[in-house]
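Task card 7
Instruction: Convert sequence to structure tokens.
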Amino acid sequence: MFSRIKEDIKSVFDRDPAARTTFEVLTNYPGLHAIWGHCISKWLWQRKFKWLARTVSTLFRWLTGVEIHPGATIGRRFFIDHGMGIVIGETAEIGEDCTVYHGVTLGGTSWNAGKRHPTLGNNVVIGAGAKVLGPLMIGANARIGSNAVVVKDVPEGATVVGIPGRVVSNSKEPEGGDRHKLASKFGFDAYAVSNDNPDPVAKAIGRVLDHVNLMDAKLLEITKAVNQVGGKICEAELPTLHVTEFDEAEKAAAKRREQEKDSFDPII
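Output:
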């Protein structure tokens, strides 16, 4: 039990930069309290103390604003950020290392008994206000955008946005690439905006960067080939374009616009 509590606390530090001390996390994170309360109600539910399990669940709902049915199955290191207005249904199944933000519903679409709530694979992130409805499967490493309404299965590694939810990317680009940095700039990844951001401007800039870097590589190959047959072309590599350079340029432009705004004196 204590090892799992330590895991839960560590998951807060890993996924919330606002967390400062262990004592602060223990006393001020209702998402953790809701998960630990669910462990108690789940234990009672499995031993057929159904009414008592529901009562414990209701008590923790009052205390945390998070409603988790005692019948739900939750994996290790599940992180609920902010923890207000979350509803997790009876037959929901959540994998390991998943993250859910405030206002999320893992609900059902039928009054029939049986499996009627979603199943989440490992490392799934569901953004604030999203609704995942029905006995569908959310693949591992998927991202559900804020306020999306998902009613169909989501493949592994996909990003879903909109109402109804639609897959806007299924990129598995490794962390740290230029495209990932670009997506981090245009949308905070923890809130389920992937490295292949659906923003058309972000896509356009990302593709231009990919194209320019590829052309630079090909030009260098051609230069070396020409020099091998007697040419005299400089083989110095061109400077690599980085997303951070565009970011700095945008910041400078924004600063100039702010200065112009402050210096504007309208005549009344």
